[in-house]
Amino acid sequence: MAKLVPLADAVAELVHDGDVVALEGFTHLIPFAAGHEIIRQRRRELTLARMTPDVIYDQLIGAGCARRLVFSWGGNPGVGSLHRFRDAVQHAWPGPLELEEHSHAGMANRYVAGASGLPFAVLRGYTGTDLPRHTANIRPVDCPFTGETLTAVAALRPDVTVVHAQRADRAGNVQLWGITGVQKEAVLAAHRSLVTVEEIVAELTPVPGQVVLPGWAVTAVAEVPGGAHPSYAQGYSVRDNDFYRAWDAVSRDRDTFRAWLDRHVHRAGAAA
Amino acid sequence: MSGPRPGTDWTADEMMTVAAARQLRDGTACFVGIGLPSTAANLARVTHAPNLVLVYESGCLGAKPDRLPLSIGDGVLADTADAVVSVPEVFNYWLQPGRIDVGFLGAAQLDRYGNLNTTVVGDYATPAVRLPGAGGAPEIAASCGEVVVIVRQNRRTFTERVDFVTSVGYGTGAGDRERLGLRGGGPRLVITDLGVLEPDPVSCELTLTRLHPGVTREQARAATGWDLAVAEPLTTNDPPTAHELAVLRALEATRHGTSADRPQAPGPTV
To answer: SUPFAM superfamilies attached here (chain A) (predicted)?
Structure first.
């Protein structure tokens, strides 16, 4: 049964230096508040996994939390580059960042394999590209039935997955809807999981297209209203596109970035 | 974004977007990336292709946005979709089996066989420019019925060799897609701000087949990092109609007004 805990306590207990951590969310429901708490608690040497590392991973990388990034697309959607990510790769600032990169289809299937308790997943993918040259986690595999050569990707099993959702009940059953991305697979693939929610309610009313994560499949739930901002929670908020546009200038310069981080993360304190 | 072409009231980017939109046939399913592909696909849907099915990699199938989204996951896509599915499902059940007719891609580099690079400029380990990476592109390029590339044409982008093959066009030439077992048809069109390139039916090498009004073949060849083949006869696209321009500009205007109704929240001020 998931424990209902304050965000700071959940991060202190579940996210350790050196862990493989996935903060998932496909544009929608990105757990920004939890990412900020990881920065405030000064976690180090993390392997950050995510299909679409965007602004929260830019912040985690710039804050020096990450040693390695496992991903498939790293950008500020609709705006351009992630400058802290680029600075880390091109100039090793604030430290070197190892990369393992995939396609979206490959990353999605790596989580599916992890959630399924399998060592790998099979897809038609990567063929003819330069991506397999750079990681041992993409290999050709022959179909035992047809002989066709397909692609295998190794399962991805984070030490801890963090996602944001619309709501949970007091037993820790979690409900999310709208664009649900790969959150279910990422939670079920992980050894531990933390879900931040907009609100904790007495009873979960069904919503079309919902995903429900039963409380016994989640480690901890923290109530963090607005915890996805500047991403959004369908039914609660809209995407703050102005923030994403403004991030380009904030993140371009190291000192401007550090000043922003100090003011809006370190001195802001935990939201819950 | 360049200003209007001399003697016209439209820009090269507007011509490129209109030319791309015209290529989308009504009733087909189109896998759309953000930016120019999304703008062109929505222009097509509002003009000649009302039944165009827009598929976004965020899992939105049949999205019908009334304003241009900034990201592939804006709420307007989910709100207007026929179905919203998970990301594993959109790739495994919808893209991989060949259910999507057209894939719409951009690129930072492209070579004469339509291979695309969105990963790095320079050496992989010590890149001059680290780009966002693959995203959905490798499997879109592999599995869609055909691929349309939209990209501005210049020598930095149109290179003899791409620094990294993120997505396969025709590989090393004729027959390579078949050898690799890629089931989709590959790039059918490359639409630029200067004209249109299509693969040669035998060699698969990209060949200039159409120019936009006011552009010369010499300009297109000078903007290409290889010895660009030119089709005979070389034709010229019709300029954007007043209706196409009006709809396009109305769509573009919506992209800048999306956050007026957002809740109050701290911005990234310093």
So the answer is: NagB/RpiA/CoA transferase-like (SSF100950)
Over its C-alpha atoms, chain B yields an Rg (Å, rounded) of 19
**Interface test mutation site (partner B, options A24, A27, A257, max chain B beta carbons within 10 A):** A27
**What pLDDT digit, counting tens, does each position of A98-145 carry?**
999 999 999 999 999 999 999 999 999 999 999 999 999 999 999 999
Looking at chain B, how many residues does it have? 270
What is the rounded CA–CA span in Å between residue A15 and residue A241?
Answer: 29
Q: How far is Cα B56 from Cα B63, in angstroms, rounded to an integer?
A: 8
How far is residue B137 from each of residues A65, B148, B202, measured CA to CA in Å? 29, 12, 25
A182 in contact with B, Cβ within 8 Å: yes
- What tens digit of pLDDT does each residue of A225-254 get? 999 999 999 999 999 999 999 999 999 999
Which H or E run contains B83? strand B83-84
List, in order of start, the domains of chain B with CATH numbers: 12-255 (3.40.1080.10)
Read off the amino acid at residue B43: L
Residues 6+ apart with CB under 8 A from B221: B208, B227, B228, B230
pLDDT bucket at B265, cuts 50 / 70 / 90: very low
Exposed / middle / buried, residue B156 (Cβ in 10 Å: 0-12, 13-18, 19+):
exposed
Evaluate whether A191 touches A127 at the Cβ level (below 8 Å): no
Residues 88-117 of A with CB under 8 A from B: 89-90, 101-105, 108-109, 111-112
The predicted structure's pLDDT at residue B262: 35
pLDDT of amino acid A35: 98
Rounded to whole angstroms, the Cα distance separating A8 from A239 reads 25
Q: How many CB atoms lie within 10 A of CB B163?
A: 20
ipTM surpassing 0.85: yes
pLDDT at B81: 95
A45, two tokens: 């040497």
Of A52, A81, A84, which to mutate for an interface test with B (greatest number of B Cβ within 10 Å)? A52
* Separation CA B171–CA A150 (nearest Å): 18
- CATH assignment of A3-102+157-266, given 3.40.1080.10, 3.40.30.10, 3.40.50.410, 3.40.190.290? 3.40.1080.10
| pLDDT for position A16 | 98
Strand, coil or helix: A163:
strand
Burial class (CB in 10 A: 0-12, 13-18, 19+), A183: buried
